[in-house]
Every structure is written in C-alpha cells, then in structure tokens.
C-alpha cells in the first residue's frame, strides 16, 4: 500500500471528511498538523504548488490535492488504484 500523507488542521471540517474516507478504507496515514506551525504550512504550500488550503493529501508521490479531489478520485474509481501503489 502506498504511503499517505495529509497536511491538516485540527478545526478543518474538510480535513475530518478526508480522514474519515481514508479510515473507512482502512488506510493508515501520516498526519502533519500545520496549526501554529508556519514552517510546516510553508513546506506544505511549496510542495502543493502554491496551494495554501488544508487538507493537502499525497498518496505515494502523487499530490491528490484537497478533500474535494480525494472524493472525486473515489467517485471516479481511481482512489483504490492510487492506494494500492
């Protein structure tokens, strides 16, 4: 299974939804909270090509994007293949 990394914030409902979807699939992920961490947020923004919103999700080397993109990949039937690596 591919490594999953999610940059998130504790009070973000989109982060919660994304984590719930991943958990419903039994996916373990590494969560990096950017709350009060300007250096981590800057790292996330750089890695995400300038995107500053959370969550920002990577599956393996693929930047999925945010919650909407994660759910779109699920609806398109692409998420399981990404997770399989």
SSE diagram, text form:
Layout: E1 4-8, H1 13-24, E2 30-33, H2 38-47, E3 56-59, E4 62-65, H3 67-75, H4 79-84
Parallel strand pairs: 1-2
Antiparallel strand pairs: 1-3, 3-4
Short description:
This protein is of the alpha+beta class and 85 residues long. The chain has one domain (4-84): Glutaredoxin (3-Layer(aba) Sandwich).
Explain this structure.
The chain is α+β, with helices and mostly antiparallel strands. It has a single domain (4-84), classed as Glutaredoxin (3-Layer(aba) Sandwich), CATH 3.40.30.10. It contains four helices and four strands, in the order βαβαββαα. The protein has helices at 13-24, 38-47, 67-75, 79-84; strands at residues 4-8, 30-33, 56-59, 62-65. A four-stranded mixed sheet has the order 2-1-3-4, with helices on both faces. A hairpin with a 2-residue loop joins strand 3 and strand 4. The longest helix is centred in the N-terminal third of the chain and has 12 residues, at 13-24. The chain is globular. It starts with a strand and ends with a helix.
């Amino acid at each position: 299974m591919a490594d999953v990394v999610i940059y998130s914030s504790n009070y973000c409902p989109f982060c919660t939804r994304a984590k719930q979807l991943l958990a419903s699939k039994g996916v373990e992920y590494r969560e990096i909270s950017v709350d009060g961490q300007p250096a981590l947020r800057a790292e996330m923004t750089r890695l995400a090509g300038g995107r500053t919103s959370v969550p920002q999700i990577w599956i393996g080397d693929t930047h999925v994007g945010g919650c909407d993109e994660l759910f779109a990949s699920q609806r398109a039937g692409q998420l399981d293949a990404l997770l399989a690596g």
